[in-house]
């Protein structure tokens, strides 16, 4: 193979005026951003780039990370023996992928890239046309699978999903991400970097681990489980986060040091009314939360609670709070009328 090109290295055509390229069949590696400590995918930021031509006879074995990020390339063919890096095709808004049917590493399903046995999701197009649903065999979401995914629909994570890799929802811009899986603990790494989607966490969740919401860019998160622990720096640097609502708390819950560190726009933590005596706040849990206004306790009253005959129907709620010495003092009362 003397004289034949075997590799196209990272940043080889970075930010160039390249429009079209035919990859020689001899090339085995198209390097990605960061390979060999070189910054930039091979074709990154080539704003006029339209076509990457790869033949069915190609010996290509690997396509690297962010290979043509932020380019208008419309089609890429993945040949027989080729594997891809996680995040290989992120931020390519117009891209359609075709995979050689002889490929034993990857498989297309519903315009998305999965592992050959369909148990791991690798990539979804940025502008996916329909409501996205996972293949029924899928159990894992790979790193950056939903990076740049844009839709006005909700993304539902079903119970079959048992593994979610780092940065799975990086820059995900769907309306909301609704977890319906059996997640008892979040991973201890970032899942939602620069994600703007509203987050609804699963009903079985008990522990929020460090870093999982680091630099999340949405403004609201809801928990629907009997949460017991929020670890230190779980929500660090969430600059757009305004409210976190807890919908069900039955057990003692600890909010650790610096849990919401530098969440500059966080205004309220919302808790069920009957959970006021089971929450323990670390003194530093709200460090650098410069917009924080306070804690709100909410009470849901059933519609049929006043289902009896009487001349007057009023609900009266008395409020008491303990002072620094642990002595309960009256804080007044309020009435709810005309239910």
Automatic annotation (TrEMBL):
InterPro entries: LRR_5, LRR_dom_sf. This is Surface antigen BspA-like. It comes from Trichomonas vaginalis (strain ATCC PRA-98 / G3).
